[in-house]
Every structure is written in structure tokens, then in C-alpha cells.
Amino acid sequence: QVQLVESGGGLVQPGGSLRLSCAVSGFTVDYYVVAWFRQAPGKEREGVSCISTFVDNTYYVDSVKGRSTISRDSDKNTVFLEMNSLKPEDTAIYYCAAGFKMGLDPADYHFWGQGTQVTVSS
Fold first, then answer.
1. pLDDT digits (tens, 9 = 90+) for 30-78
2. Which of 83, 88, 96, 100 is most buried per CB count within 10 Å?
3. Are 20 and 36 in contact (CB under 8 A)?
4. Backbone angles phi, psi at 89, to 5 degrees
């Protein structure tokens, strides 16, 4: 059974940084893709970034490009999303998800975590 567990959310001041973690377990194949999505109140779920386990291909949505880094620790089966220069508009519940296709279409992801709240406020 595939499971994803997020951690690392919290309250941070504008301009600050956070590192989110997604622990992945239960995959029986070597290749898969892990993505981060976020959903703010009253808004649709938005893809933020994704990384593949094959040669660590990465992709970022324009709104976080240049101030976010997605990475993974293959030994620990954990994917990280480090976000810097955080803005109030980054406030959302952040979810990690796993699938088999690179990209940020939620429909391509079959397994989801429970989410972690990120609040950017002074």
C-alpha cells in the first residue's frame, strides 16, 4: 500500500523559508514521480513542483521558480520542497502526491498525502 506523509509546515513570516518533507512508502517499482500541490481557501488545487526518481528530473510552476528547490533522498524515500522568500500568497495546504507521469496535472497522480498547512503572515 502506497503511503505519503507530509511534514514541515507551519507559520513563517514573509521573506522566510520552510522545508517540507514527504515520506513515501509502499512503491514496488523503481520509477515514479512525486509532486507538491497546494490549495488555498477558495481556490483550486495548484501544482507547485515535481521530481522523478529517474535522473531526478524536476519541474516548477512559474510562481515559485527561482525561490524553491525540490529534491529527494533516495535512501530515505523522502522528497523535500524548500521554499524561500515566502509570500503571503504562498499560504495554503501543501500536499504531496505520487504518480508515473512528469507534470503538474492532479489527474496524473494516484496517491496523495493528507497535507500540511503553510501560513505566511507577520
1. 889 999 999 999 999 999 999 998 877 899 999 999 999 999 998 889 9
2. 96
3. yes
4. -70, -5
What does the block give as the cell for 95?
A: 500536499
Give yes or no for a contact between 87 and 64, defined as CB atoms under 8 angstroms apart: no
Cell of 100: 508515473
- Alpha-carbon separation of residue 68 from 42, 51, 100, 110, 115 (angstroms): 24, 13, 22, 24, 18
All three cell numbers of 55: 535522473
Helix-, strand-, coil-residue percentages of the chain, each rounded to 5: 5, 50, 45
Q: Which residues contact 103 (CB under 8 A, 6 or more apart)?
A: 47, 50, 59
DSSP string of 14-57? TT--EEEEEEEE---SS--EEEEEEE-TTS--EEEEEEESSTT-
Under 8 Å between Cβ of 88 and 14: yes
pLDDT of residue 53: 86
CA quadruple 8, 12, 90, 72: dihedral positive or negative? negative
